[in-house]
Amino acid sequence: MNIRRRRLSVAAVAALLVAGAFAKAFQRGPDAATRVARPASPIYGVTIPERYREWQLVGVSYQTAFDEFRGILGNPIAIKAYRNGALPFPDGAVLVKLAWKRTPLDESPGAFVSGAATTVQIMVKDAARYPDSGGWGFGRFVDGQPVGEGQHQTCFACHQAKVKAHDFVFTRYAQ
């Protein structure tokens, strides 16, 4: 009887250890070997960062030409650079711009809220990988899919023409 109890106890402990290992692996997410490749932008190979919605707000903007509200988020490296006034941005800085059509708020005439999502746009600072575009890689996505190469060819040219002195970044830090 004691041997049988010991075997059951050892089996129970082993089952708990295996369950704990699975729980930890589940919390971390799938390992690199089992992850599904995310769609990447043409030219730059930029993907939508995981968990970017948990990043801090850099600022907001409104684009009249597109009638869009935009919220810009930064990863911790970008936020630190903004707070320290560090230009150029260091490698590893990532900015994500979310854009929505503006929609009138029926309950409050003259007020607007975000409506339909239009794009997610990404900037990744990696001077070695993107030497021909000021050290920045660009990605523009609609419904989670990258737009065509033609649109990506215009990214750096626009940033270079308008905000070269600010390390090619339009958004200023909202304090």
How would you describe this protein?
With 175 residues, the protein is an alpha+beta fold. The chain has 2 domains: 1-36; 52-166, Chalcone isomerase (3-Layer(bba) Sandwich). It is built from 4 helices and 6 strands. It has helices spanning 2-28, 76-84, 149-153, 155-163; strands at residues 56-63, 68-74, 94-104, 112-125, 136-142, 145-146. Strands 1-2-3-4-5-6 form a 6-stranded antiparallel β-sheet. Strand 3 (94-104) and strand 4 (112-125) form a beta hairpin. The radius of gyration is 23 Å and the shape is globular. The termini are far apart. 23% of the residues are buried. The model is unreliable at 6-34 (pLDDT under 50).
Quick overview of this protein structure:
The chain is built from four helices and six strands; from the N terminus they run H-E-E-H-E-E-E-E-H-H. The protein has 175 residues and is an alpha+beta fold.
